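Subject: sequence -> structure tokens, single chain

Hey, anyone have a minute? Need the predicted structure for the following. Not urgent.
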Amino acid sequence: MNKRTKPYSEASEQNREPILGVLRFEFDSPGTVLEIGSGTGQHAIYFASALPHLTWQPTDMEENLPGIRTWLEETQLPNVREPLALDVNAAQWPVSQADFIFSANTTHIISWDAVERLFAGVGRVLRPGGRFCLYGPFNYGGRYTSPSNARFDAWLKARDPASGIRDFEALDRLARRHGLCLTADHEMPVNNRTLVWIHTRGECADDC
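Reply:
Had a minute. Here:
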């Protein structure tokens, strides 16, 4: 029987170390991390290996789970769970509660309706006091932060008009609607950011 080929993402290899630096700080206590959109599974393996105090729950669309499993089978990390199928558009998610939530490069590849459902799901699942870290490119004040991001956005919209780089302000308004209060905006390499929200018990206060 032929061994399954592991999926591979060059971008995941390049951005994993800067993201890890943020997660070490933001996910500093023991708990379970729900990763939304695990892709190849490379991030799950790398972060779980470097952060043994966390239990990592990878998720993605059903068709991507076999690829994630190839990484899990090779590494056999005790703190990575079996990947689960998660569609952000679904009314019911396969995880009912998480201490932390992480997602990388997702909001610009899905529709705005799906982004709204993603944040609604985070608001349902993330425990009070838990943090949501979202990595990717974002616009500020309706403007691109670099010419390369403008080109990337044009490429995204040519591929799928419903996708595209999201405005930070729109994401933050959406987060507040679901009780998520912005606590950090980390600058990352290659014109990316990591946004961090903490889950409050109710609607986010204006001065949070």
